[in-house]
Write a structure and sequence with these properties.
Elements: E1 36-40, H1 48-64, E2 68-71, H2 78-87, E3 89-92, E4 103-106, H3 113-121, E5 125-128, H4 132-146, E6 150-154, H5 160-166, E7 173-176, H6 179-184, E8 193-197, H7 203-216, H8 230-242, E9 248-252, H9 258-269, E10 273-277, E11 293-298, H10 304-316, E12 319-324
Parallel strand pairs: 1-11, 1-12, 2-3, 2-4, 4-5, 6-7, 6-8, 9-10, 9-11
Bound molecules: iron/sulfur cluster.
The site of iron/sulfur cluster has 15 residues, from α1, α4 and α8.
């Protein structure tokens, strides 16, 4: 595992094991004469916020033409980002890289007030692909701050969602990453203290940290609805159901994807060997030796095409069947922003660009 809690691509955090040369083409060998069964988690892959964010970039490209600038990776997935780059999206971190009059999209993770203000001041044509469930947290934080609340935020330092949420306020929001941090945090007052969390955390880890916060600050205000989103919860629940039924869990997801990392971690905590892969060619034949039951899932930013490629790869290594797990059917859908709905009127850039990149 990397220092920030991520599972390294193609690596198990379990005991080290010899890795054979990657197989492929004529080097592909059957791993078992018994035959591997793939159990496919449900739900898996794209959530409503990711679907919406990608559609916003694609519609902006269709409507305004390339290039379209996107602040940060629209979602944390290498395949998605490369696909959109090929269609004309340019991913930037610094607004200095965006020319005057350009169309700019904020990623699904959300941005700070400072970034919003600067983008507006520069006169870009802006579309906000922040997931509405992240925006809900932003709105709540701003509202409670006006009422005099200070916050303890549970999240991962440096994650863009955490930076965006903490950046809704000038001050008064304290980040804790684990139970040990809770003992160290020093709010200015405790009479008006509220808890807020990143949307893509481990449900169980967040509950343990929240319990430590409540033990230290019994009057802390909790969110009415928990901030961890339905998609994160459902994908973790599916892994909880799947893990005892399989010998190894494969998670399709990029190393930067928080919720994908949490799925791989969760399987491992439940005692099942687990690997995270960004693409099918990272799959190693040795992972299935003596492990004929393979669980397969995907983080909320990983497209189904990658899941199908992974299935193809495991079949080439000896899988003989694919069985779908029963799970929750997700029906959540978020509306597109004004100006990108199918019958939307043209959206002009804001007036008086102050400067360009
Ligand atoms: S994982 Fe949750 S918060 Fe993130 S984009 Fe999907 S629905 Fe929104």
């Amino acid at each position: 595992m990397s220092a920030d809690g991520k599972v390294e691509v193609g690596r198990s955090a379990g005991p080290p094991q010899a890795r054979p040369a990657p197989s492929g083409g004529s080097a592909v060998h059957q791993v078992t004469s018994v035959g591997v069964e793939i159990l496919l988690a449900e739900p898996r892959g794209f959530c409503a916020g990711v679907d919406r964010a990608i559609e916003i970039v694609e519609r902006a490209l269709q409507k305004f033409g390339a290039p379209i600038y996107v602040r940060h990776e629209i979602v944390h997935n290498t395949y998605v980002v490369n696909d959109l780059k090929a269609k004309g999206a340019i991913f930037i971190e610094d607004l200095d890289a965006v020319p005057a009059g350009a169309t700019l999209i904020f990623s699904a993770h959300g941005v700070s007030r400072a970034v919003q203000d600067e983008a507006r001041a520069r006169g870009f044509r802006i579309f906000d692909a922040t997931c509405p469930l992240v925006t809900k947290v932003h709105v709540e934080v701003a509202k409670l701050r006006r009422e005099g609340f200070e916050f303890i935020m549970i999240g991962h330092k440096g994650h863009p969602e955490v930076e965006g949420t903490m950046g809704q306020l000038d001050d008064g929001i304290h980040l804790v990453e684990d139970v040990a941090d809770v003992a160290r945090v020093q709010p200015d007052q405790t009479a008006r203290l509220a808890l807020v969390t990143q949307t893509t955390l481990s449900v169980d880890d967040a509950a343990a940290i929240a319990a430590a916060v409540k033990a230290r600050f019994p009057s802390v205000r909790e969110p009415k609805l928990q901030d961890i989103c339905y998609a994160t919860q459902n994908r973790q629940d599916a892994v909880k159901m799947m893990s005892p039924q399989v010998d190894v869990v494969i998670v399709v997801g990029s190393p930067t994807s928080s919720n994908s990392n949490r799925l791989a971690e969760l399987a491992r905590k439940l005692g099942t060997e687990s690997y995270m892969v960004d693409a099918a060619d990272e799959i190693q034949a040795s992972w299935f030796e003596g492990r004929p039951r393979v669980g397969l899932t995907a983080g909320a930013s990983a497209p189904e095409i990658l899941v199908n490629q992974v299935i193809g790869r495991i079949k080439a290594l000896g899988a003989v069947s694919v069985r779908k797990m029963r799970g929750i059917e997700e029906t959540v859908k978020f509306p597109l922003p004004k100006g990108l709905k199918p019958d939307a009127a043209p959206v002009a850039p804001a007036v008086s660009p102050k400067r360009n990149g």
